[in-house]
Amino acid sequence: MNNWGGSVTAHDDDGQTGRNILRRWQDCRTPGAPIPSYEAVVLGSLGRLADRAALVTTRNGQAARILWAGQEFGAWLAQGSEGPSAESCPSETVPVDALPIELREPVGEMVAAALGSGQPAYSRCDRLDAGVVTSTRLVGVPLDNRWGEPFVLIGFDGASVRTELVQAMFTATDQGILALSTIRDAAGHPVDFKIVALNRGAERLLERPAAVLQWQRIGQLFPGAITARTIATLAAMVERGGRSAFELSRPRSDGGTLYLKVEAGCVGDLLSVTMTDVGDIKAREASFRLLFENNPVPMWVVADARDRFLAVNDAAVAHYGYSREQFLSRAPADLAMPPDAAPGLGLPPTGALHRRADGSAIEVSLFQRAMPFEGRQAVLEAAIDMTERRRAEARIAHMAHHDALTGLPNRVLFRDRLAEAISRHARDGEAAVLLCLDLDKFKIVNDTLGHPVGDALLREAAERIAGCLRKDDLVARLGGDEFAILVGGMDLPTLADGLIARVIAELGRPFRLDGQDCHIGTSIGVACLPRDGTDPETLMKNADLALYRAKAEGGGTFRCFEPEMDAWVQARRRRENELREAFARGQFSLVYQPLMDARSDRILAFEALLRWSHPDHGPVSPAEFVPLAEETGLIVPIGAWVMQTAFAEAATWPEAIRLAVNLSPIQFRNRSLVETVRGALATSGLDPRRLELEITESVLLADSAANLATLHELRALGIRIAMDDFGTGYSSLGYLRSFPFDKIKLDRSFVSQVGENTHCTAIVRAVASLGASLGIATTAEGVETVEQLAMLRAEGYDEVQGFLFSRAVPGPEARSLIDRGREPVPDDRAA
User: Fold this and answer.
1) Three-class secondary structure of residue 826 per DSSP
2) Quick one: pLDDT at residue 459?
3) Is residue 464 within 8 Å of residue 506, measured between CB atoms?
């Protein structure tokens, strides 16, 4: 390998990693899906390949974050402290934009190419460190991500190659040595020189064997003008005595030119001549000039640090801002500045702090090499600007311990600070309080308004929480919408109570997001050191248990840890399992509550309601199991079963009787909702015009485009759409502009106080008037007394529903209600 070649140094990989990734990617492709899935290629399948690979998330066709990196890939990222720590890469996501430019650009280009073509893409990362460029070839393959935008799996595609920028510029030369005797004319003047002795170097340079050259006159051996000038130069030196040095060139036998540096000294008429072939030096000087002058690294040549610059390249002129003339009038010491002159920078261990022409300070690492330059010994220096590297190191160190979205400390730093608090308690008895909190209704905002708005909500929530704290308190984002607060000091009960109240109040204020006021609130779990634990794991676990209890009680509140909470959580988890078993074993049933014509007391429709009878504990309240089904996602298959069962039952009723079915906001996250409804209608034969689907306002939070589109698709089938629990939300009136509802159902909380509470009576009247003005049917829920019915009739409500007429009954009893009553009045609005 020559001096300019590369050498494998970064890692032992002959390309097998890249080939295996490509083979795995190809094997997982299926017809109709040219991009294989993340699960098929990565999950449980990479094996040892994962050590030399990383997974990149994408956004809008560009690289977004390094989701994880294997140990060797993480170590490669961390070489020279240029990337995230090798230990953090597998568990901490890192924005690609935070990588140094020499990694960011090639990785970004490769990811964009892979996403754009749907095929494997390649790139090469070149990194400069200590005057050496390390080149690493990468391969990236696109992977489908069913949860969002595609991933790109990247890995090594061969071994890294190191290439030196600065090599030895010159090598030792062979020398020819001659001993000459002076030949004088009759007047005693030197006219020629006889070769007395010579070495092998002289034989090579003069291209004659020693036997031919020895004892011969130079003028006779090499006649011509060049020899005549050389003899004249040597003769003049003999006349005056001393030493002389000069250069000459002569033709070679192969047609080239031999360049010689000649040094001679005389003692009387005897001369010692040393000849050095400087052809290589001249060629190297030309190469040096090219490499020096066009090098992108600032470089200069000096005799020593106290002398002026002998030469400076274009990169130094551009980077430092001094003109070439200004540079050549200065010495290296003129660039230096004292470390205390730039408080934000530190002196590099192998470099200096330099001042540029504009007065700005930069950290530089200096690399030096002694070399001859224009006939004198000199030093070649290269200056690597470390300023951006130091800043990148600081950013990466910050990212390792802080959340990228909010800037708050992350889980790693929080656990460190919690461990420090525990150590202080063990040392001096100082107590502490740990608060774990998350944002109520955050998931609805994130799912309906999108992740950018969800991110904005998290940032503002973080600012509000931080604004509630004292200087020494700590708040961290643990992940998602989970935050934690650590408070220490004296009088902790009072401090904690005040802090909790401030946080709940701050997060209870509306958030202005995407032009919409959103109300979320927070739930908080509290654990105290040392009462509730003396190690981080126990304290975090107990605070989480308390948080879980606060959320189960409706949110917007806090709970302190109590030992019995563990048993409560276990019971709740058992109830989750029982809920799954209940669905699998057919323990759910439907009951139907009639909706009556407010004017004629005739049945117009039935609302299907879900019931669960536990085999051991009997009936379970829907208020208990429905939220649990929504939390676990089980509401989607349960909802599909409800539609299939209720549609089939309603298909047996007279055609004038309609069916109302509630839809959970969680069902709208499943984009197959329309197909589920269409399939249930087709299977049951139910006329879609006899179906009403009831939704709550959270489905339309801030006019979610996807949910609105789903509602329009359902309405296009002929289905009626009703807004349930009208009046209980924050923006119910605004939603009437978002979608043309067929019906609004006044919440039972207003009906229960009509005629007794002035405000409720006014709302009942206003909703009736609103429905009449907009041409929307109105239904009042929860009617229990004759007086309530009379007032609702007087206000003009179209339909009523409640225990005054009938409780919810099983399907056969619902049919009996229809059969026993008068023939229902046809409802023109069903058409």
Assistant:
1) coil
2) 94
3) yes
DSSP-based three-state secondary structure for 762: helix
Please tell me the predicted confidence (pLDDT) of residue 81: 47
By three-state DSSP, how is residue 314 classified? helix
Q: Are strands 190-198 and 175-184 parallel, antiparallel or unpaired?
A: antiparallel
Indicate the burial class of 90 (C-beta count within 10 angstroms; 0-12, 13-18, 19 or more): middle
Q: Are strands 691-695 and 62-69 parallel, antiparallel or unpaired?
A: unpaired
Measured CA to CA, the distance from residue 571 to residue 561 in angstroms comes to 16
Backbone dihedral angles phi then psi of residue 497, each to the nearest 5 degrees: -60, -45
401's enclosing H/E stretch is: helix 387-401
Look at residue 342 in the predicted model and tell me its pLDDT: 58
CA distance 81 to 58: 25
Q: For the chain, which ranges sit under pLDDT 50?
A: 1-10, 81-91, 166-173, 702-703, 731, 822-831
Strand, coil or helix: 595: strand
Cα distances (Å, whole numbers) of residue 206 to 183, 228, 245, 278, 336: 20, 16, 18, 14, 51
Amino acid symbol at 659:
L
DSSP letter for each residue of 118-186: SS-EEEEEEEEETTEEEEEEEEEEEEB-TTSSPEEEEEE-S--EEEESS--------EEEEEEEEEE-T
The packing angle between helices 564-584 and 622-632, to 10°, is: 80
Distance CA 321, CA 795 (A): 83
CA 249 to CA 263: how far, in whole Å?
14
Rounded Cα distance, 249 and 230, in Å: 10
User: What pLDDT, in 10s, does the model give residues 267-325?
Assistant: 888 888 888 887 776 667 666 777 787 888 888 888 875 678 888 999 889 889 999 88
First to last CA, the chain: 87
Pair 593, 609: CB distance under 8 Å: yes
Angstrom distances, CA of residue 45 to CA of 291, 396, 474? 48, 30, 41
> What is the pLDDT, as a whole number, of residue 755?
81
Burial of 828 (0-12, 13-18, 19+ CB in 10 A): exposed
DSSP structure class, residue 51:
G
Rounded Cα distance, 243 and 389, in Å: 54
Distance of CA 753 to the CA centre of its chain: 53
Query: Of the candidates 48, 35, 44, which has an alpha carbon nearest to the alpha carbon of residue 152?
Result: 35
Q: Is the dihedral of CA 575, 579, 580, 585 positive or negative?
A: positive
Residue 460, φ and ψ in degrees, nearest 5: -70, -40
- Copy the structure tokens of residue 559: 């709970």
Task: Name the one residue in this structure whose structure tokens are 């007032």.
Answer: 791
The C-alpha angle with vertex 392 and arms to 390 and 394, in degrees rounded to 5, equals 70
186 is written with which tokens? Answer: 């009759």
**Is-contact 719 688, C-beta < 8 A?**
yes
DSSP string, 224-285: SHHHHHHHHHHHHHHHH-SEEEEEEEEE-TTS-EEEEEEEEEEETTEEEEEEEE-HHHHHHH
Q: Are 41 and 154 in contact (CB under 8 A)?
A: no
The predicted model scores a pTM of: 0.47
Q: Which residues contact 597 (CB under 8 A, 6 or more apart)?
A: 603, 604, 798, 799, 824, 825, 827
Q: Are strands 62-69 and 53-59 parallel, antiparallel or unpaired?
A: antiparallel
- List the structure tokens of 364: 């530089």
3-state secondary structure of 305: coil
In degrees and rounded to multiples of 5, residue 298 shows phi and psi of: -55, 125
Nearest Cα to Cα of residue 613 among 453, 468, 794, 810: 810
| Rg of the chain, C-alpha, whole Å | 43
DSSP 488-509: ESSSHHHHHHHHHHHHHHHHHS
The two structure tokens encoding residue 54: 């990383």
